[in-house]
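Next comes a concrete protein, fold included:
___
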Amino acid sequence: MLNIALFGPPGAGKGTQSQKLLEKYNLGYIATGDILREEIREGSDLGLKAKAIIEQGGLVSDEIIVQIIEKKIQTNTQLDGFIFDGFPRTFVQAYILEGLLLKLHTSLNVLLSLEVPRNESVGRLMERGKTSGRSDDNEVVINNRLDEYENKTLPVLDFYKERGKYVGILGVGSVDDVFARLTETIDIELNKHLLNVVMLGYPGSGRGTQAKKLAQKYSLNYISTGDILFDEMTRNTPVGKQIKPYIERGEIVPDEIVIRLIEKHIRDNTSARGFIFKGFPRTVVQAYILDGLLRKLGSSVSCIIDLEVPMLQLMKRLISRGNKENRIGETGTPEGIIDRLEAHEIQTLPVLNYFKKDREVTAVNGSGERDEIFESLSLVVEKAFKAVR
């Protein structure tokens, strides 16, 4: 999930920017005043409690507010996250929000603070007062509101600064200029939390079938170097013409070509929640390349899965597949299959050892029924999602 606290003084344009962010990132909007009124209108138990307190001139407690926020989050599972406007208002509420989001297996990604000079805020609100008809849009009240914002907000901003989650955004300029600054920061934050899965295993282990199903279930982008290369050849692109001789000779396509295609594929699919790599990296050099590429994007490999299948079963699967399918660069003969398995052992097993040096590699039994294997893989991916979020 993408959870953002949007701060800014009165007149900073939070309402306008929030609406644009909601649409771009499929987020929900949580403003305590709005959700309180919504609960009261619906006549829910929480709404009735809040209404009774308000009618007696009291302030609704943090206990009720946090229950209403929790309900809002849990009943809007189709959204990809939330923007919090006006909450947390105090450092106590900041701790409350931390605990609530932890309970829901998520967290606040970033606090974005629209920074607008005081005279700019006053000017905007005074201008708004000419047409809004609001009695509080006068200079005395405006300055009081700005004083209150600064005094109450400072402890909250410090709370998130200490945790490295505060980002100040220049709020001066056109609406589109400010929006561009916000989205640039958010996209960087999203890249930090991408789920990047590397699916390892011998030819015939079922990596491709299972990786595609995982990609569909978890909104990941499936990256298969074989598929990407084949697509370039099919479309007869300049790169496709360049790689065709290598494929026809049964040789490995040079890394400098493969990495450019993968990087382009990633940049063309920035809306994905992450990527699942099948067939890459094939060598230790490519493992270094993948780490470097993801680091350049502000991300990293977050989950490595080794799909284990006994050698005899691999042979049977590959022979059966060779008889049914005509895959480019593959042969279904026993000799050809043995060559492929040996090449994998020589080139790709070192990749497994490369990752094992400083990262956890999860071995999954790939010799059972497809649905059972998929269920086991799903558990691994869900655990990884919780870790990166």
Observations:
- The beta strands are 2-7, 28-31, 81-85, 110-115, 166-170, 195-201, 221-224, 274-278, 303-308, 361-365.
- The chain is about 60% helix and 15% strand.
- Residues 139-162 form the longest helix (24 residues).
- The chain has two domains: 2-27+79-191, 195-388.
